[in-house]
Each structure stands twice: as structure tokens, then as C-alpha cells.
Amino acid sequence: MTEFVPLTWQDTLYLAPELILAAMFLILIVTDLLLPGRTNRAVIGWLSLAGLLLSLAAVIWRMMDMNPSGVSAAEAAEAGKAISLLGASYRVDDYGNLLKIIFLVGTSLVVLLGLGSTQKDDAVTDKAEFYYLLLPAAAGAMIMASSGNLVTLYIGLELLSITTYVLVGLRKRSSLSAEAAFKYVVTGGIASAFVLFGMSYLYGVTGSVSLADFPTALPQAFADYKALVYVGFFFLIAGFGVKIAAAPFHVWAADVYQGAPTPVSAFLAVIAKGAALAAVFRFLYSSAFFLTGGPEKQAGDDVFFALLVIAAAAMIAGTVSALRQKQVKRLLALSGVANAGYLLVPIAISVTIIHSNNFAEFVFYLVAYLLMNVGAFAVVTVVASAAGHEDLKGFSGLYYRAPWTAAAMLIFILSLSGLPVTAGFFGKLFILLGAASVKAYWLVAIMVVSTVISYYFYFGIIRQMFMRSNGEEEDRIHVPAVTGVVIWICAAATVALGVLPGPLMKGIDAVFTIQADLFVR
User: Fold this and answer.
1) What is the dihedral of CA 264, 268, 271, 272, to 10 degrees?
2) Three-class SS of residue 391?
């Protein structure tokens, strides 16, 4: 059992990114109460963005402090050691830092997307709650990435979940939003219950909630309570499968994405999904990984194989379900189901002597997924504002009415399709090569087939933009300046990673090590 160590004032410096978000959240609540009713709540949005950027700076500073340049190998190894807080229940390491950077950048882009939207678009971006509720949601995602035990992981999960329940239902007068919020609360509550139920079984058989104790406790627990270990792991997989929106646990996604405000849909697609995947990655490699191999088949082998099956099912179900979809946000939701499958592959194929850069593959594709999805949702806000609906036909003649926006959307679609020269191409390629290196050829075949199938509905958007006309070519679409910034940040970064993927991959490998940053000790 890990001894509980109280938090000291010095330790709070390591928690600066999370504490900054918590403090800014409280400040903005009071600010909103004190501001006159007629005051534009965009000021709350800009202050929320400032809090996110300050937290991001704290994460980057800590990461640079843990990876100093120009020092000896011994000094670098000493500086790069993971920092354990509260008896290893919370960890500050490069695994968590890299993912926190992704979550904070993604949330910042969502805030900007909200600032660029109008009341006509989503009817919530003029409300302060939309902006400051994103701060605890991002903090919950960060806690999940740095959790060192099951209790901390569950706290982060619920902090993220509860705030997103509210965000989805912010459009009080919309029946679609009310329906989406109801479905999301019910499915999210069931998923949380599954996660908690699975955790209780693992705690029961190991006598500990600390991931640091699992490598030694689980093998003995598996020998004594084989069935209970399986129950614990598979309930956890089912619960997180709902949070990730991976088939067959994905049915809620299309309805929730359609009913939620578009910036909230973007947050769910990227940050909420990424946080759940980060938690699964850390948890499985601190538990099930130590139940793999050996002369007899063990629970870990079955757990990782189950993830492979879920990944394959998500790719197939997501792409096939999207074939006849005419509502763009539902289409992007089902695209997210397929992408959840791709993101599960680096986790599911496990670490072997032949293949050990799973995390780099995972992070690269998560970055690519963030850019192309936030960018696509930003274009959807522009088109929906002009057309008055979110159907595919709203993109008709977009090239003639907003050529630069159409060009950016083309980049996002090519990246989602996995075509060069985009970040999505190299992201899928790295994952595919990783699966091939461990001879998971059946999974490679499913990845290729699902990617080819996806061309049909992705190219349907291109066909609408460039080969269709709505008879109103002279009515140019107005793109708000802030939304345009979001679109072109995402588009430029997508192309940059498609042209030069090497620096990001090398950067991840330079700071991340499996022993020091992934395993909880």
C-alpha cells in the first residue's frame, strides 16, 4: 500500500496549471455576477482564454524545467524524473504534460470559436457560463492525464463529465439541445457507473487504488480471483468506451453532437474524447500490461485484444453509419467514432520489443485529430449561420461564396480522409505501420477498408462546395475575424504537420520515455 503524504505549499507549485484554471473559474463566476446585465459577456470569454493560456505557459515551463538542455545525461535523467504528489495519487510527468498542452490548446481554440460565433449561430456564446465552464472541464481532462490512482482518475472524469452535461444543455429553448442533454446525462451516468463498478472490483482483489501497486498486486490477484479481475477490466472498458464514443458504445454521439452548441460539440469531439483515451492509456499500461505474456494466456492479453476488436468495430460502424448522413454535425460525430478506433490502435497493440513508439503515434494523431476537427466545426458555424441550418446542402457553392473558407475545409476533409499532404495522412500512416510491425494484418486491412469507405461521405462535402450551386453565388458568406483565425490556425498547422511530421515525432520521443513517464511507480 502506498503511504498517503499530505500536500505541502511547495507541492502546490507543481499543480500551478490546474490551480490557475480553478482560480480563474471562481474569479469569472464573481465577475459575471458583478457585471451589469447588458454588458457583453465576450469579456468573460477573453478572460477565460487568458486563464487557459496562463495555464498552458505553466505546463510548458514545467516541461522545460524537467527536460533541460545543455546538461549531462545524468543531470537530464535526474531533472526528468516524474514528480509524485499525495502518495503517487497525482503525477507530474512528460506523459501528462504533453497531453495537457493538447487539451489546453484545444480548449483555447474552442473559446475562440465561441467568441467568433453569434447568438444566431448557437444562442449560448453570449452567456458567460459557456466560457467559464470550459475551465473546470479542461482541468478535469488534465487531472485524468496525470492521475496516479483510481480515485483521482474518477474525480477528473466526473469533473469533466458534469461540466459538459451543463454545456450540452445550455440552449434552454432548443428541443434538440434538451434531448441531447438528457441522452448525454443518462449515457454518461451509466458510463461513470460502469467505470466505478470496475474500479471497485480491482480495488477488491488488489486491496489498493494506487496504480503503483497494480504491477505487483494484480498477478497474484489474477491467480486467486481470475473471474473478478476480468469483470473489473471489462466494466472499465465498457465505461470508457462510452466516454470515447467507440462502437458499440457510440449510439449517443450523433444526437448529442447535433443538439449541442457547435463549439461544445467540438470540445466533446476532441478534449473529452482525448481525456478518456489518455486515462485508458495510462491505466492499462500500469495494470493490464503486467498481465500479458507468459506461458499461459492472461487477462491482459484478453483486455488488449478486446480493445483491438472495439477499435475495429468503431472504424467499421463509424464509416458505414456516416454513408447516408446528410446532417454535417452528425456526420462529424460518426467520423469521430471511426477516429476513436484509429486512436485506440496504438493503445491496443501494446508495447513490444519490435514496436515501442505507441505513445508518439497516439499523440501525433491526437494533435492531427484536434486540428482537423476544431477547424471543421469552425467552418460549420460559418456555413450554418449563413444557411440557417446544418445540413450538407448548406455547403452548396461555398467555393463561390467564401473561397478561402472552402479551401480550408478542403484541407480538413483531406486530413480526415487520410490523404497527403496533411497531418491526418501521416497520423494514420504511423498507426498503420505500427499495427503492421506487430503483424496485426487483419487490423491493417480494416483500417484501409474503412478509410476508403470514408472517401464517399467526405468527398460529398467537397462535391457540394465545388460542384454544386445554390443559385446565390453573389451572396458571399461573412466569416467573423475570430472564427477565421481559428480556421486558419488549424488549416496551417494541418498542412505543416503534413509536410514536416518529423519534428513533432522527434520532439515527443525526446521528452517521453515509457519507464519514467508512463508507468506509475
Assistant:
1) 130
2) strand
Instruction: Specify the 3-state DSSP secondary structure of 38.
Output: coil
Q: Which contacts qualify for 447-454: CB closer than 8 Å, 24 or more apart?
A: 447/315, 447/342, 447/345, 450/315, 450/316, 450/318, 450/319, 450/338, 450/341, 451/319, 451/417, 451/418, 453/319, 453/320, 453/323, 454/319, 454/322, 454/335, 454/338, 454/416, 454/417, 454/418
Question: CB within 8 A of 156, min separation 6: which ones?
Answer: 140, 141, 142, 143, 144, 147, 275, 279
Using one digit for the tens of pLDDT, what is the confidence trace for 320-353?
999 988 899 999 999 999 999 999 999 988 766 5
Residue listed under C-alpha cell 549531462: 72
For residue 142, give the nearest of 304, 7, 305, 15 by alpha carbon.
15
Q: How far is CA 471 from the centre of its chain?
A: 39
The pLDDT score that the predictor gives to residue 134 is: 95
CB contact at 8 A, 16 and 227: no
Checking if the pLDDT of 90 tops 80, the result is: yes
Whether 288 has a pLDDT exceeding 60, the answer reads: yes
**β-pair type (90-92, 83-85):** antiparallel
Q: What does the alpha-carbon distance between residue 200 and residue 208 come to, in Å, rounded to a whole number?
A: 10
Give every CB contact of residue 251 below 8 A, 6+ residues apart in sequence: none
User: What whole-number distance in Å separates Cα of residue 377 and Cα of residue 396?
Assistant: 17
Picking from 464, 359, 373, the residue whose alpha carbon sits closest to that of residue 423 is 373
Average pLDDT, the chain: 88
The pLDDT value given to residue 247 = 87
**Three-state SS annotation for 339-352:** HHHHHHHHHHCCCC
Mean pLDDT of 240-262: 92
Exposed, middle or buried by CB within 10 Å (0-12, 13-18, 19+), for 72? exposed
What letters, b where the CB count within 10 A reaches 16 and e where it falls short, cover 30-63? ebbeeeeeeeebeebbebbbebbebbbebbeebb
At residue 73, does pLDDT exceed 50? no
pTM across the whole model: 0.93
Q: Is 80 exceeded by the pLDDT of residue 119? A: no
Q: In the prediction, which pLDDT does 116 show?
A: 84
**Cβ atoms within 10 A of the Cβ of 158, count?**
16
Instruction: Give the count of beta carbons closer than 10 Å to the beta carbon of residue 151.
Output: 14
Report the residue count for the chain.
Answer: 521
All three cell numbers of 484, joined, read 477565421
The residue that leads in pLDDT, 42 or 308, is 308
